[in-house]
Amino acid sequence: MAQLKSWHKKLKSRLQHRFHYDQEAQQKNQYNPPNFSLAPHTMTNNYACIGLQNPKSPDNVGSVMRAAGCYGVNSVFYTGRRYDTAKPFYTDTQKTYESLPLVGVDDLESIVPFGCVPIAVDLIEGAKPLINYKHPPRAFYIFGPEDGTLGKDITRFCSDTIYVPTTGCMNLAATVNVILYDRMAKGDDYSYHHEQLNLKG
């Protein structure tokens, strides 16, 4: 158990160091945002990560991890303390957590992977239906808790907010599965979000 905690701590530190922008460089205007028009040539396509805002159910998180493994997600981040009190992966019989990073962080905005477009997934006013949505080649999908919704502190830094059109509510794990399947099914028909990110291309 001690070795597992030590490994998790080192992994968390390494990932946070990798994804944090250089604040000093930003203050000196030396940071240049990625040009998504060059994405097919300079960045790896089909790169996706998941952010979970204060998840509650270990069963749902286990299902999210299993979906992430099935659809080739690179890493999963989560905030909040509720999940830490109930960590057993009841549903993830494939033990995806042993090969796919699941990292607790203080906030999701600070660890948006480099070059990824942050996308909020929630049934809220102004959200775009998934049916006609074109996924970016590098995406960071952010999902709200099972018993709540994403706040403006999340949606304000997201380039898009999307939702799954249904007659009823789906749980967290089901929503993650649908989003990831839709991304896979639509293939490489990507959107590069020039206008949303004010990038030249």
UniProtKB/TrEMBL annotation:
Keywords: Methyltransferase, S-adenosyl-L-methionine, Transferase
Taxonomic path: unclassified sequences, metagenomes, ecological metagenomes
PANTHER family for the chain: TRNA/RRNA METHYLTRANSFERASE, TRNA_RRNA METHYLTRANSFERASE SPOU TYPE DOMAIN-CONTAINING PROTEIN
GO cellular component terms, A-Z: cytosol
Native species: marine sediment metagenome
Gene3D superfamilies named among the record's database cross-references: 3.40.1280.10
Keyword Cell cycle included in the entry's annotation: no
Molecular function GO labels: RNA binding; RNA methyltransferase activity
Transmembrane segments: none
Name by which UniProt lists this protein: tRNA/rRNA methyltransferase SpoU type domain-containing protein
tRNA/rRNA methyltransferase SpoU type domain span: 50-181
Family note: Belongs to the class IV-like SAM-binding methyltransferase superfamily. RNA methyltransferase TrmH family.
Any one biological process term the GO annotation gives: tRNA nucleoside ribose methylation
CDD domains: SpoU-like
